[in-house]
């Protein structure tokens, strides 16, 4: 399930409670994309937690307290990877998968494209390294659809992030539009100030 709020530059996108607390910045949100995992992820997490609880409860060497602790950890992990938020501002892209994710300056981006990849997270859903400098942010229900962003960090190293999204085409278009505006604004500020008109003698 995917939600996307977009707006013009003069009307910032409305942030939910989480984004307002953990993704707040001086730069207003132009787009806030929020993708909730499909039912498979919480169902898998609940089934795994129940299995662990029953297994520990029926093995005296493990015990119910350990089962409760481990099953609670599994449930918290499934909730942690239940929502992927992507906030686009006039300056950067802020990605939060749980509390994790990069903040990508728009001016550092080389390419943005909507792709359908065949790369699965080794956890099936979650955050996984693909190769040096490449990361996959996969959420249940994205079916391999993602926005591929190639950019360079402050040290000049090339990074690639695949951000899972069922609405990857629209999200990629929104990011490209924000990037164009950021570059135009940068070019505008780089222009030399015009000379004052000369006063008649």
Outline of this structure?
The protein has helices spanning 17-22, 40-57, 64-80, 168-190; strands at residues 2-6, 31-36, 83-88, 92-97, 103-105, 109-116, 126-131, 134-138, 145-152, 158-164. The protein is of the alpha+beta class and 201 residues long.
Descriptive notes:
The structure is a single chain. The protein contains four helices and ten strands, in the order βαβααββββββββα. The protein has two domains: 2-37 and 81-190, PH-domain like, CATH 2.30.29; 44-78. Strands 1-2-3-4-5 form a five-stranded antiparallel sheet, covered by helices on one side. The N and C termini lie far apart (70 Å). By secondary structure, it is α+β, with helices and mostly antiparallel strands.
Quantity of strands, as a count: 10
Shape: elongated
Q: What's the gyration radius in Å? A: 22 Å
Domain count: 2
């Amino acid at each position: 399930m995917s939600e996307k709020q977009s707006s013009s530059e003069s009307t910032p996108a409305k942030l939910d409670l989480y984004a307002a607390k953990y993704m707040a910045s001086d730069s207003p949100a132009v787009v806030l994309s929020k993708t909730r995992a499909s039912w498979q992820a919480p169902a898998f997490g609940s089934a795994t937690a129940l299995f662990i609880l029953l297994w520990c409860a029926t093995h005296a060497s493990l015990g119910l307290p350990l089962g409760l602790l481990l099953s609670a950890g599994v449930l918290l992990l499934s909730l942690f990877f239940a929502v992927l938020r992507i906030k686009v501002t006039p300056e950067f892209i802020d990605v939060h998968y749980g509390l994790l994710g990069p903040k990508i300056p728009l001016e550092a981006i080389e390419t943005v494209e909507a792709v359908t990849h065949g790369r699965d997270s080794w956890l099936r859903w979650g955050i996984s390294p693909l190769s040096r400098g490449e990361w996959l942010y996969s959420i249940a229900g994205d079916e391999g659809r993602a926005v591929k962003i190639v950019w360079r960090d402050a040290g000049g190293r090339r990074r690639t992030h695949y951000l899972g999204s069922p609405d990857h085409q629209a999200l990629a278009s929104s990011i490209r539009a924000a990037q164009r505006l950021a570059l135009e604004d940068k070019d505008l500020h780089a222009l030399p100030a015009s000379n004052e008109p000369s006063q008649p003698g």
